[in-house]
Amino acid sequence: MSCPKTQFLLQEYFSDDLAPLAREELGKHLANCEYCNAELESLLLTQSTLRHWQDQRVPHWDRGLNLFRREHRAPAAGAGLWVGWQWLPTAASFAMLAVLLFNLTIVSGEHGFSISFGPAADLQAQLTTFQQLQREEMQSLVTRVEDRQDNSNVQLLQAVLEQTQQSTAENLDRIYAYFEQKRIQDLQDMRVGYQQLVDSDYETIRSLNQLAQFVSYQSEIR
Amino acid sequence: MSLINEDEALIAAALNGSAYAWEKLVKRYEGKIYNQGLRLTGNASDAMDLMQEVFLGVYRNLHRFRGDAKFSSWIFRIAHNKAVDMKRRKRLMSAQPRSSDQDAGDDFDNIASEASYEPEVRLDEVQQNSQIVTMLKMLPMEQRLIVELKTFQSLTFEEIADMQDISVNTAKTRFYTALKKLKSASEEDHVLS
Ligand SMILES: [Zn+2]
To answer: Is B184 helix (H, G, I), strand (E, B) or coil?
Structure first.
């Protein structure tokens, strides 16, 4: 009591893309062949037994939160200023430059106003000196940033070249880990650099700002 | 908000460092992954190990997830691969003392500290589950996986073939063979009881 077509037909029965015509044929055969019919019944019964699975509750676990918090603490620990920047170390370096450029604009802005200002000579000299200092500082900063970027780019490139010689998924993970490590390190370096810059220039920036406010206040009055 | 979009929003937030979003994302899938683990490994402690490995894999690769596939398909693919890995590892280590497979997951904290959880008891809680597990245990892993993907995850043979890197026909044959084997096993069981 067996049928040579059973395996082929029932295998097709469970496939998802059975053509209508084939399904019709299958139906006809099943209606006439007791063996295939019985076999199908019991296979379906088996499948339905499996489907009686009842989902069980997951035992308590930490859901990887300790790891998550550990790895996300470094970039998040900085004050609010840094939060938006954590994925953009490059933007951070531009922002550093922007701070310096901002000073410069104030300074050159002063230039225009200084004519209508009382103690012009003194202020003019002061501003010119300051402008000079700012230029030099910015120049050296740009050089520093370029140097560092170049260095890390070369390192990254070397790492990538070494790693891709055998490009398995594990290596990709390693490359990524390297990038990630690099990014965080860059970020930290940049934060330190920025902080130093802000600390050292804070006083000058503040007095310049006050000056600028005073000047625009004066010019508004007139 | 649709399910997929909510996944994507959670992923984006988690990538931005939100532990809350990460936890929500895990909560959405841990039940499915854990139960899949129970069916594939047949015991709660391995299911737990497997689930942790899956989520560690998800965590490590989250930045690589692109919205072009559904997150659920992506996570089940990771789960599938981890199950295959685990099976391979177990086979390799079967000669060694059991303690050595404890440090498999690299840094998810060990859940064994949770005193309330008692592997065998938990599986027996649901009687028909232990019957199903007994049945599934008779299958070699590759057949067990195909039954899992077809019967419980409702994947098409094409998706299964793609995941397992086999032809669609092989997938069909493998599923049929597995089902037949389960059928005779449960019939024998019936005769005995
Ligand atoms: Zn027949």
So the answer is: helix
pTM of the model as a whole: 0.58
* Number of other CB atoms surrounding residue A72 within 10 Å: 18
Spatial neighbors of A174 by CB under 8 A, at least 6 apart, are A163
Kindly state the helix (H) or strand (E) to which residue B171 belongs, with its residue range. helix B168-192
B120–chain A Cβ distance below 8 A for any pair: no
- Interface predicted TM-score of the whole assembly (ipTM), two decimals: 0.79
Q: Which of B35, B108, B157 lies at the smallest CB-CB distance from A67?
A: B108
Cα–Cα distance for residue pair B52/B71, rounded to 1 Å: 17
Q: Report the separation in Å between the CA atom of A14 and the middle of ligand 1, taken as the mean of its atom positions.
A: 15
Q: Which CATH number fits domain B123-193: 3.40.50.1580, 1.10.10.10, 3.40.1190.10, 3.40.50.300?
A: 1.10.10.10
- CA distance linking residue B88 with residue B94, whole number of Å: 10
* Side-chain half-sphere CA neighbours of B181 within 13 A: 16
| Nearest Cα residue to A39 out of B146, B133, B191, B187 | B187
Nearest to B128 among A17, A54, A66 (CB): A54
- How far apart CA A146 and CA A132 sit, in angstroms, is 21
A181/B contact by beta carbon, under 8 A: no
End-to-end CA separation in angstroms for chain B:
50
Quick: pLDDT tens for B58-92. 999 999 888 777 888 899 989 999 999 988 888 76
Q: Which fold has domain B1-93?
A: Rna Polymerase Sigma Factor; Chain: A (1.10.1740)
